Structure formats: C-alpha cells, structure tokens
TrEMBL record:
The keyword Disulfide bond does not apply. It comes from the Bacteria. It comes from Companilactobacillus versmoldensis DSM 14857 = KCTC 3814. Keywords: Membrane, Transmembrane, Transmembrane helix. The chain crosses the membrane at residues 117-139, 151-173, 185-205, 217-236. Residues 1-40 are annotated as: Disordered. The lineage of its organism: Bacteria, Bacillati, Bacillota, Bacilli, Lactobacillales. This is Integral membrane protein. InterPro entries: DUF1129. Residues 1-31 have a biased composition (Basic and acidic residues).
Length: 248
C-alpha cells in the first residue's frame, strides 16, 4: 500500500515537472518571438501565412497606406501570427478574411466610452424631476385649495428626484450585468427596500422643514420646471454621449 502511494506521488511529481518544463519552454519561445526582428519572423512564415501577409499588405496600400505604414502595421502582427502558426492556427483563421483584417487596421472601431455612475444618476434624476414636476403641477392646478404640505416643496422635489435617480441607476446597472455577476435576488430586493425606507423617512423629516425654506410652488411653475428639466436632460445626454435608456 505504501509502495503504491509512493509510486503515485512519484508519477504526479514527474507529471508536474513536465508541465512546468513545457510552460517554461512556451514562455521562452514567446519571448524569442516577441524580441525577434520582423525580417526573421517573415522568414518563418508558412506559405499560407506568407500569402496572407502579402495580400494584407496590398489591401492596406490600396487603402491609402504608404508602403512603410503597411509594413509597420504588419510587423506588429507578426509575433502573434508566428506564435499561432506554431499552434497550427493560420492567419486567416486567427483574423478572418484579409479584407476584414485590413478594414480593422485601416478603420479601427473606437471602444465605447463607459459612462460613469454619477453621470447616469444625474440623467435619471433629471427624468424623475420632470415626472414629479408634472405630477405636482397637475395636482396644484386641479386642487381647489393650495396644498401647503412640505413634501410637495421644491427642495423635497429636488432631493427626492436625486434619490430615485441614484437608486434606479444602481438597479439598472445590476440588471444589465451578466447573470453570474448580478447580486442575488434577495440581496437586490433588500437594497431596493432599504432605499425606499430611506426615502419614506426623508419625506417624513421634510414635514418638519418650514414652508419658508421649502415652499410649495404654483402648479404652472411646476409644469414649466418639468419642461425645463426634460429639455435640459435631452441636452445633457447629448453632451455626455449617453445612449442607454434610463430604464431597462
């Protein structure tokens, strides 16, 4: 029994040693390829890859690249081409058709700029400000008596819209993540519940603020603010380059 265990351990150690040696060899080859002169790398190309490189050069020159620019662009690809060639992966399989790779080099697609959380929160807050302003405006115009309650005051409106903007933006970002990266359903509900509780507490506290500080405005004024906020949001989205919707 002990002999069998020693034998298995010995085989495992030998296997591990072979893996380490293989990894070191691959690393050594990769370093040699990356530091090699492009002329030397071109000599190592297979006939298939050599033809691919020749056609790629022609496509780039036809697309207004100078010979020097086309050569430099291809030289940057050679280490990757040769490395994959060793693995049995030709350039046309690695990059696709020559026309596609030439287009990628000549007309690279700029990566989409990620909009920061604060910018998305402002966008959503402006939307809620407009919605709440419409609501308060309609209530103000349809009510027989003016509503003096502080929770309809302008400061309440601004802070409430800001809180909804932050909460809904966070929720949207979580829902747009891959399923494996999303927080659990119970955790998400817990966060939303905590956010709603904070808002209700906030509304209760705002009742203590005197109307001289937090005045309730005329219904028409609220409607005007709604139009201004929505128009401002349109300009803000264009300025910040925001393309995503405020809601899923």
């Amino acid at each position: 029994m002990a002999d069998d265990l020693r034998e298995r351990n010995k085989k495992a150690a030998e296997k591990q040693k072979k893996h380490s040696e293989k990894a070191e060899k691959h690393q050594e080859i990769a370093e040699k390829i990356n530091s090699a002169d492009p002329k030397e790398l071109r000599k190592q190309l297979s006939n298939k890859n050599e033809e691919y490189v020749f056609k790629l050069n022609k496509w780039l020159v036809d697309d207004d690249f100078t010979e020097a620019e086309a050569e430099e662009s291809i030289n940057n690809l050679l280490p990757e081409i040769v490395s994959n060639q060793i693995k049995g992966i030709p350039a046309n399989q690695l990059y696709g058709p020559v026309s596609k790779k030439a287009g990628d080099i000549a007309h690279p697609v700029k990566p989409k700029k990620k909009t920061p959380f604060w910018a998305l929160s402002i966008d959503t807050s402006l939307l809620f400000f407009a919605l709440f302003s419409v609501l308060y405006g309609v209530v103000g115009l349809t009510s027989k008596k003016a509503n003096p309650q502080n929770q309809t005051g302008i400061i309440t409106l601004i802070l409430l819209a800001a809180m909804w903007g932050v909460l809904l933006t966070w929720f949207n970002l979580q829902m747009r993540k891959p399923k494996a990266e999303r927080p659990g359903l119970l955790l998400t509900i817990g966060y939303l519940g905590a956010g709603l509780i904070i808002m209700f507490v906030f509304l209760g506290l705002m009742e203590l603020v005197p109307s001289s500080i937090n005045p309730a405005l005329n219904g028409i004024v609220y409607l005007v603010l709604a139009v201004v906020a929505y128009g401002g949001r349109f300009l803000y989205r264009r300025f910040m380059g925001i393309k995503t919707r405020a809601f899923i």
